[in-house]
Amino acid sequence: MTDASTRALAAAAAAPADIAAAAAALEAGALVAFPTETVYGLGADAENPAAVAKIYAAKGRPQDHPVIVHIAPGADLDYWTTEVAPEARALASHFWPGPLTLILKRNAHIPDAVSGGQDTVGIRCPSHPVAMQLLQAFKGGKGGVAAPSANKFGNVSPTTAQHVRDEFHDEVGQGNVIDSVLDGGSSQVGIESTILDMSRLATHGPVLLRPGHITAQQIAGVIGAMPRQPDQAAPRASGTLESHYAPKAPVALLPTGDIEKVLAELKLRGRSAALIHYTPFALTQANVALPAEPKGYAYGVYAALRAMDLEQVDVILVEAPPADDAWLGVNDRLRRAAFGSTGIIERFLRS
Ligand code: TXA
Ligand code: MG
C-alpha cells in the first residue's frame, strides 16, 4: 500500500468511540447517517420496522419504495435471502465489499418495511472503511443496516457529511430524528451503487435496474451473461423514477457546441446561469469544471450540482457528457436531474 492510500484510509476511518456510539444508537432504534464509497446513507436497524419507518418519515419518501440492506463483509447472505443462485454468489464474492446491490428473494423473517411490500430485498456490502467499521460493530457484525441515500426524497444525493447536515439541518443531533452523522470524507465513487436484479434469474436473466460504477460488462465478465434492461415487471426502484437526484434550480443538459451561444442568449434576456462542464470555456459566471473522464466526473458531480444550486441562478447548465457506455451511470443521473426541467431553455429564450 502506498503512503497516499494509507493516509486516505487513515483520514477516512472513524474513532472507535464514535463507531461504538453510532452502533449503539442503531441498536436502540435511532437513525445514523454514515459514509459509503458511493454516497452517504441514512441508516436504521433493518430488522426494526419502527426504526425503518423513521427513515421514510425523515426523507419524505413514499412507503412503497424499498431500501437497501447493508451488511458487513463476510456476513451470512442466507440469513437475509433465499433461492440465491450461484451467479449471485459469484457476483457477491467478486464485487463485495463494493458498489453493487443485488436484488434477491427475501427471507420470510425479513420485515416488509425494507422491501416496500415486495418479495425481494436489496443487499449490498459497502467498502468504505467507516461503513465497514459500523457494520462490524452493529449487532456484532450480524445485523443489517437499511439505508437509502441520506437526502430528502428526490434531491441530490450527499457525498460528504456536510451535505447530509445541509439536507437535514436541525434534525441532526442526539435526541433528534438523526442521532449522528459519521464523517468519512468525500465518498470515493460519488454516484449510487449499480443495482442488479438477480431474483428472477431463471425467467428473466440478470436485469440492470440502476447503472453505476460497476458496469454491465464487468458483471458479464463474472457470470458470463450480459444484464438486460428493465422490463415492465421488474422490481421498482425509486432511483429509476424519471425525475430524481434534482437540485432546486432547473437543470438543462446541453451539447458542448451549444453552451456559449445559450449562455450569451440567456444573458441578453437577463437570465442567470451556472455551468458544470468538462471542456475548458472562457467564463464569467459560476461554474465547476469536472474531469473529462467518467470516474473523476462521477466523484464530483453531486457536489457540483449542490454548489451550483447555492448560486441561486435561474438555471444550471450541464455540458452533456459523451454517450458511450463508460458514462452510463453519470448520464443516467444527469438525465433524471434534468427531467423535471424539460424545455426550460426554450421557455427562457422565448420570454
Ligand atoms: O449506493 C447506494 O446504493 C446508496 C448507499 C447509501 O448504499 N443507497 C441508495 O439507496 O442509493 P436509495 O434508497 O437512495 O436507492 C436505492 C434504490 C431505490 O431506487 C430502491 O427502490 C431500490 O434501490 N431497491 C431497494 N430494494 C429493492 C428491491 N427489493 N427491489 C427493487 N429495487 C430495490
Ligand atoms: Mg436515493
From TrEMBL:
It is found in: Cytoplasm. It comes from the Bacteria. Its EC number is 2.7.7.87. Gene3D superfamilies: DHBP synthase, Threonylcarbamoyl-AMP synthase, C-terminal domain. It catalyses: L-threonine + hydrogencarbonate + ATP = L-threonylcarbamoyladenylate + diphosphate + H2O. Required for the formation of a threonylcarbamoyl group on adenosine at position 37 (t(6)A37) in tRNAs that read codons beginning with adenine. This is Threonylcarbamoyl-AMP synthase.
